[in-house]
Amino acid sequence: MTSDKRLTVPLFYNEFLLLLEDIALHPGFVMLCGDFNFHVDDAFNQNAVVFNDIISSASFSQLVAGPTHEAGHTLDLILTRALVNFVNEVKTSNPLPSDHAVVECWLNLSKPEQHKVKVKFRKFRDMDIDAFRYDIRSSTLCVTPSSDLNVLIDQYENVLADLMDVHAPETIPGVSPWYNNSLRKAKQDLRRWERLWNSSKLEVYRQIFRKQRILYKNMLEQAKKEYYRLSFEGCSARQLFQKVCRLSSPSSSKTLPSNEGMNRRQLAEHFSQFFSDKIDNIKCELDTIRDTSSFASAPVSSPKPATDVPPGEHHCMLQFDCVTVEAVKKLIIDSPSTSCELDPLPTWLVKKCVDELSPVIARIINLSLRNGHFPDSLEGANVNPLLKKTWTRS
């Protein structure tokens, strides 16, 4: 677009060439189609000649042969990579009352296979934090930490990863044991007829949907019966009793505290006292934070510049000061609870184990400062590009 907001043919050439160059860098099947409004069939049309040269320079080819407009020119085009031929039987027809013809073609492409994505997660809510902290204190990471920086980093990551697998192992969401491929196929058919009925509201689709729903319900019940029949076969009386008890009386977690020996009035007062104590604890924590903040914000007198340095001489910093465990602990607690998938532990869990991990992290920092070397294993990073707008609306 020019300064006076007019579209010009040279501007289209430049932008279209940039588009083809960007597409050429990506693998796969590419097809560009539409009304380009160039008479590519006319060898004496200057605009069409330039357009064909741009297509050839980007290793693309034009597949439509014959007129696509009532004036007898080829305006509607199909562009593909010259070396990848997956478009067959290109033809034109005029079934519509339009000045442009319909361009039809067959794509020699197979439907991609459906890939199942296995999702893994850790049950952090069921994790015993106290036991996890005890295992950290008893591990080689705290008992016999290495004096080599890279070895210590590997020790830190491996020990914590092993402890995570013990206390919060990765699990895959389970599927009901009676759910099989036949049920999956019947459910897919059920959803397909349901979508057809919702989109068309035809009575025939509603009847098919109802029949498929009854069929799926019966298949599901039959699969459950068969599964439990096979699981009960060969069981002893004790095993049979345990299975029946587990099915008829599922375990439920207690949501209320123990009220043994309390009447209703005492239980209500117990609840009231609990929340009162909770509010008092929050107030005390807020007062402590306010006192700490006021102390940290107090003005600090800046050191006076040294005046006893002889002219022509300069001070050199020969080494870094070692960080303290308390300084590392404060940095960990004050840091945001965001995590990266490269971290051996999520940040919120590191904060809960800060007393056990801060000496190790301080040791890693001090070894790095003392040796003047950044750990090799910490140089990796995950970069997630974000799509930003390349234009703004005026």
Lay out the secondary structure.
Blueprint: H1 9-24, E1 31-35, H2 46-57, E2 60-62, E3 76-81, E4 87-93, E5 102-107, E6 121-122, H3 129-138, H4 140-143, H5 149-167, E7 170-171, H6 181-200, H7 203-232, H8 237-248, H9 264-296, H10 325-334, H11 347-352, H12 354-371
Antiparallel strand pairs: 1-3, 2-3, 4-5, 6-7
- Topology, number of strands: 7
What would CATH call the class of one domain? Alpha Beta
CATH third-level topology of one domain: Deoxyribonuclease I, Chain A
Intertermini distance: 13 Å
The total of helices stands at 12
**Proportion in β-strands:** 5-15%
Helix-and-strand structural type? mainly alpha
Evaluate the radius of gyration. 36 Å
CATH superfamily name of one domain?
Endonuclease/exonuclease/phosphatase
Helix share bin: 40-55%
Q: Any idea what the CATH architecture of one domain is?
A: 4-Layer Sandwich
Topology pattern, helix = H, strand = E: HEHEEEEEHHHEHHHHHHH
Mean pLDDT: 83
Arrangement of strands in the largest sheet: 1-3-2
Largest sheet: 3 strands, antiparallel
Overall form: flat
Low-confidence stretches: 295-306, 389-394
